[in-house]
Amino acid sequence: MIYEKAVELGRQIGQSDDYKAVKKARELMEQASELSALLQRMERLAEELEEQVRLGKEPPKDRAAEYEELLSKIQTDSRYQQMISAQANFEKLMVRVNERIMDGMKKGSESPIITLG
Q1: pLDDT for res 111
Q2: DSSP string of 45-65?
Q3: Which residues contact residue 90 at a Cβ distance below 8 angstroms, ignoring those fewer than 6 apart?
Q4: String of DSSP letters for 2-37
Q5: Do 76 and 47 contact (CB within 8 A), yes or no?
Q6: In angstroms, what is the C-alpha Rg of the chain?
Q7: Residue 86 has pLDDT above 90, yes or no
Q8: Helix, strand, coil proportions of the chain in percent (round to 5)?
Q9: pLDDT tens track for 21-77
Q10: Signed CA dihedral, 82, 87, 92, 96: sign only
């Protein structure tokens, strides 16, 4: 019974406007090859800079400047902004869902009636 209810909850979440917005924003970002290339380059640079810091070295200034420039370009892209906004809204939905699940668990654990199927 628990698994069936979990599947139903997942189905309803998948039909929510918040999930649909994330899915659409993700598709738009995947179609934007130039944005994807910028994101990949920024991720590689971030890993490189983190490695330098881990090794106790000062990251090269040109690499840090390139990272900042990429970050600025990416953050001003409307598709990226749409994705960030959609993700934030979906995360809020999931927090509310998890809170309701926890409320239900608390009530269920306090109930003297056993309702397992």
Answers
A1: 73
A2: HHHHHHHHHHTTPPPPHHHHH
A3: 18, 19, 21, 22
A4: HHHHHHHHHHHHHTSHHHHHHHHHHHHHHH-HHHHH
A5: no
A6: 21
A7: yes
A8: 85, 0, 15
A9: 999 999 998 899 999 999 999 999 999 999 999 999 999 999 999 999 999 999 999
A10: positive
